[in-house]
Specification:
Rossmann fold, 2 domains, six-stranded mixed beta sheet
């Protein structure tokens, strides 16, 4: 398989080092689950790969292009769905998606047709002409998802994409990701929802304190750790255990 993403010695420093010499590659058509505790460096990694953070050490290649030299070209072939993003609240979903289509160089008529169809699939057809400053978090997240899929990207980056979605929308997104994989798309997926990551990922990478501490299929990682579930595996590897003890302490405090 051709390589869709290749990272070598990737490091990023703010006041202290956030990423520590990450090395990994992603093949075309793979779904990668990228998980770790808050502050581990997940979002920073994704922002580097999507060209949003240009200042970093090491190398990052996406779709065969160097992120430093070809950030604009890379943006034309990827989709990026963050947990929270500015949506231009004074616009309607249809206006916003028409704007996104224009940025990608899509034909206006084709963009409007696709936007209407996608809004209908996500249950937003009756809100397509409403200003988004009235939308709930889940509705806003659906618009973000649509905007990331609109231009049919070769590589899709998702950073907590299920935040705020209702159960039906979560099921729809999971099915969409599976069918995108069948269509040969590459998906780099960061989430705290372990059961979703476990079910949809071809391979799971776990990052902790800026370091890649595990990289393999769930079966491979589980065989090493004998954990039984991704949630337990994550707890074992990241050292964030003692949940039962902490829960008991909390109960004692609030009695």
């Amino acid at each position: 398989m051709a390589t869709a993403i290749e990272v070598r010695q990737l490091s990023k420093r703010y006041k202290e080092k956030i990423l520590h010499e990450l090395d990994f590659s992603v093949s075309e058509g793979e779904i990668i689950g990228y998980i770790g505790p808050n502050g581990a460096g997940k979002s920073t990694t994704i922002k580097i790969l999507t060209g949003l953070i240009p200042d970093f050490e090491g190398s990052a290649i996406v779709a065969g292009m160097d992120v430093r030299q070809h950030a604009i070209e890379i943006k034309r072939v990827i989709g990026y769905i963050p947990e929270n993003a500015a949506l231009y609240d004074v616009l309607t979903p249809l206006e916003f998606l028409e704007f996104v289509g224009h940025l990608y160089g899509l034909e206006k008529d084709k963009t409007i047709l696709k936007a209407n169809e996608l809004l209908k699939l996500f249950g937003l057809e009756n809100s397509r002409n409403d200003r988004m400053n009235t939308f709930s978090k889940g509705m806003r997240q659906k618009v973000l998802l649509i905007s990331g899929l609109l231009q049919n990207p070769k590589i899709l980056f998702l950073d907590e994409p299920l935040s705020g979605l209702d159960a039906n929308a979560v099921i729809l997104v999971k099915e969409v990701l599976q069918q995108l994989k069948i269509a040969g798309k590459t998906i780099f997926y960061s989430s705290h929802i372990m059961d979703v990551v476990e079910k949809i990922s071809d391979r799971i990478m776990i990052i902790n304190q800026g370091k890649l501490i595990a990289n393999g299929t769930f079966a491979e990682l589980n065989e090493q750790a004998q954990s039984g579930s991704l949630e337990q595996l994550f707890t074992n590897l990241t050292g964030t255990g003692e949940h039962k003890e902490k829960a008991s302490q909390l109960i004692d405090i609030i009695k």
